[in-house]
Please model this.
Amino acid sequence: MPQSRSLKPTIKVDLKDIAKLNSSTAEQRQDIDAINETDSSFKKSLGGAIYNGDDDILPIVTDKNLKLIFGYKVSTGKLIGTGIGEDQIKEFLSSEKFANFNGASGIYPLLVDSALNVLLGYDSHSQRIFGAGIESSSNPDAISTPIIEKAKNHIIAYGQSLSVGAQGEPAQSTTQPYSNLTFQGGPRAYDGSSFSWSPLKPLVEDNATAPDGLTNRGETICSGLANYATTLRAMDGKATDSHVILASSAGYGGAPIADLEKGTSWYNNTFLEHINQAHTIDTDHAVHCIAWLQGENDGSLSTPFETYLSKLNQLITDINVDAASITGQSSPVFMLTYQTCTRSAQWRQIQLAQLQAAKTNPLIFLVSPLYFLPHNADEVHLTATGYKWLGGYFGRAYKTLLDGKRPKWLNPLSATRRGSVIRVRFDVPASPMVLDTTNLGAATDHGFAVEDSGGLVSLDTVEIDGQDVMITLAESTSGAVVVRYAMDYLGSGLAINNAGSGNLRDSATETILVDSVERDLYNWAPHFELDVIDIGE
Model:
């Protein structure tokens, strides 16, 4: 059966343009009223859903006499049409008779071309119309192409040792509370001596030797991710078995990004095999997300910013091509990435490249930094509690993608200065921002540092003012000025290898139960550096 594919935008459509139809002239409205009164046969045969200039109705399709064929009623938030009610719309548009689009839960195509590309559709999750060019004007937070749900919805953790749960022993998630799955050999698909794929089994964690040959592997992010995403969907009223997640981990301990890219032995023979084997087991399967946990090795190798950024962007491009080739899927593979913490005070280029990728690539989203999470005694890896807690961040981001929206983080936007005051502005997911020294050890100046041509500049105060962090300088500056966060100072009581941290977070209300404790899922500010722009009217 052919599958629907998304059409690249060719025509810019703005719902405001549709709404302009409501401003018909008096003469046009009189003509429409006359049509409504005289064309009783049309009313009787098509249900009388005739557009009469009602400001509450946005017409989508009309006939030449401006009679409504299909439209959207603003007050009810529902689609309307001639002779069909909401149930009939859903039944018809989600059936195999219409664009073969029945695999996408909650997505109803309205208009397609001859190749079954969706030109116009309705997303019941976000209650918005989407289509060629509509997303950017009607909903800037919408992802470019909705996820098309399958019987097996695959998420693959990929990267180096943190992606396979290094030092996460003993594993915590040893029972499956929902219907989520993994391979027979566990998330790493390995029974300690060889790969073990089929049959799929309930998603639980283990401490088995990994395919990279190391034995200190335990809890991965897989269970925390999949189960927390299911929890959030249940809170929305969705059945816990309505979206089955297949979670696995294909990482390679100690690997730089150059050893994980397309064409390498590990990518070709291990990463792609996770996709091949899953699709062999059940062809009603697609890969929706790569959870990227990597960068520590590139920090030790001093990989340049431009090199890492280019390779990361190319990796998600290659994964999309290869996943579509194997599964036939038309929806994209997104990348959810953490921001590595190790060596952030020594070689900050990797952290900056990961942040830049999330800011500029529509397929990549930053999930969280790591400095606030419990680290293992080796000062690089997380504890089992840390991995499951981090999985909650990935799970929240994945659920946001399922809702058709872009995951958000506490995103630094700009740094401007008037006189001695620098304001760093943020896109704040959940206000207010907080300088938190209760849940995390205090760092010097809460992790903020300002540098000019002569070196670090003394700061007087660091305060919150709405969506800005307001930094008052204690001395004058010379030359170009930059402001950094979580790259110069490590908070008291923290032990992370060559790392910086800070105390800035938002007030997100979600929590995840880890080790019998409710853990907050605050959005902590990422490691960043911004050029300071002097302003003054």
Remarks:
- The first strand starts at residue 5 and ends at 6.
